[in-house]
Amino acid sequence: MPRPSVPRRPVVRTEFAVVGAGITGLSVAWALARRGREVAVLDRAAVGHHAGGSHGACRIFRLGYDDPGYVGLAARARGLWGELEEACGERLLHPTPQLTFGPKLAQVRAAMLAAGAACEMLPAAEAMARYPGVSVTGEVLVEPASAVIAADRALAALAALAAPAALAAPAAPAAPADRAGPAGGIGAGVPVTSLADDGRRVVVGTTAGDVEARRVVVCAGPWTAGLLAAGGITVPGSATLEQVAYLAPAAAAAPGSASPASAVPAGSTVPAGSAVPARSAAAQQRGMPIFVHYGGEFAYGLPVPGSDRYKVGIHHGGPPVDPDRQDQAADPALGSRIERAARTFLPGFDPRPVRVERCVYDNSPDADFIVDRIGNVVIGCGTSGHGFKFGPLLGEWLAALAADAAGQRDRRRAAPSSGAIPGHQRRFGLGRFSAGNPPRAGGRPTGSA
Ligand SMILES: Cc1cc2nc3c(=O)[nH]c(=O)nc-3n(C[C@H](O)[C@H](O)[C@H](O)COP(=O)(O)OP(=O)(O)OC[C@H]3O[C@@H](n4cnc5c(N)ncnc54)[C@H](O)[C@@H]3O)c2cc1C
User: What fold does the segment set 10-54+154-237+365-433 form as a domain?
Assistant: First the structure.
């Protein structure tokens, strides 16, 4: 009697599989692809989709952290951004000076000086004469090496560079509107449902079939912990739903119809919709710098490349969220805090947003990234709202961990046994959360957006 045929799940075999096509996962894929390695990238949705942490037009690139370690890492990341720009033939970082001010100014300055990064301290009046678009008090640190990252262009460039060397991922099932079918080696619309590491290879279960890989790199943002928990790997963290506002220039008024906004002291407000005189409005909107109010409420802002819009937000301002149940509607309470920051710091812009965007943060308990490898599973997550600028560096680290046999950490051991990320295992490895090795004093967050 013929045996009943058992339907076989389709299997794709590859050297490396990457879960997550945000900035971290795509950077890993590019780092592996440019080493000539075979890689499949799997994401439950299309590159740049709105439920992840990497979507939107722009992000801040800066060296200015209150910790010389991060200043040095940002400088290393800057070099890799240059290599990416060269590889894709497109400018992705738009040099834009940055004004840093606020309660942690002295720590940022000290960290930058310790790391040998260029910066200049100015009294507020001088800073505002140079950059009339930002209203400040006290002292201001001017950082000349900052830039606005064209974030959406960076994702597209990485996806295009990674795909030709990547392996076809399993075909996506019927794709909902926010999901695309597989593009090159990027399987979009392919949720990963399980991971099983048998010590020789990892079977990555997806809704479209299995992928067998020698190593898997999990860069699934705030979904990482849930995905790894089933395989017995604990990754601590929490998600928050943040909000940013896009502002348009304030309307220019007829001369004499309003008091000059530049005369409004920081801390007081420009009435909503108030017009500013034509000459000062134009000056305030031209050559807008990035700003970071470091410490305190942590407001930040940046000009949107190729547009007259200005993006503003509050770092770690949003409420906790289940990443699978995000309500993308504008949060009025957060909106009024952002509007207050706009009135305080941005005299040339109408503080009422023309558009609001929500975006999820993937927070580690101490705001440091999580970069580690357990068996054949490499983990890159916990970017805590400041990971975009480090994308290419995280990609290099994670690709090296995936490709390096010596980097393996035995999953049964409590403490990390390797220096797989030279000099950084203690800070970024999962071992820092082990019993007897509590998170660093000060908790989170050290950096801003
Ligand atoms: C409002 C806002 C402003 C920010 N500003 C800055 C800034 O100015 N400068 C800066 O450096 N950083 C900034 N950041 C932080 C930065 O954007 C993030 O740290 C970074 O984008 C996180 O990227 P990621 O690839 O790790 O995660 P994500 O972009 O979230 O990608 C994870 C991916 O994994 C996929 N995935 C999850 N689970 C599965 C599964 N089971 N199967 C398949 N796929 C799965 C998801 O669909 C998602 O696409 C900001 C973040 C936000 C939200």
Answer: FAD/NAD(P)-binding domain (3.50.50)
